[in-house]
């Protein structure tokens, strides 16, 4: 998601649990790039005790 912020663009990357519709992890960046996505994914994985059976799509 792109949004103006203090005269510049800010990009939001979020991962939502589709079962309970809660935000599992999110990151905001000035750049819409792979680092933003990987940082979000790594945060989501680090918050889970067991990633066995985890599906990301």
UniProtKB/TrEMBL annotation:
<dbReference type="Pfam" id="PF00665">
    <property type="entry name" value="rve"/>
</dbReference>
<dbReference type="InterPro" id="IPR001584">
    <property type="entry name" value="Integrase_cat-core"/>
</dbReference>
<feature type="domain" description="Integrase catalytic">
    <location>
        <begin position="5"/>
        <end position="55"/>
    </location>
</feature>
<dbReference type="InterPro" id="IPR012337">
    <property type="entry name" value="RNaseH-like_sf"/>
</dbReference>
<dbReference type="GO" id="GO:0015074">
    <property type="term" value="P:DNA integration"/>
</dbReference>
<protein>
    <recommendedName>
        <fullName>Integrase catalytic domain-containing protein</fullName>
    </recommendedName>
</protein>
């Amino acid at each position: 998601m792109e949004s103006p912020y203090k005269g510049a663009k800010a990009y939001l990357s979020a991962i939502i649990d589709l079962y309970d519709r809660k935000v599992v992890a999110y990151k905001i960046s000035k750049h819409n790039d792979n680092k933003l996505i990987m940082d979000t994914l790594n945060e989501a994985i680090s918050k889970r005790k067991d990633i066995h059976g985890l599906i990301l799509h």
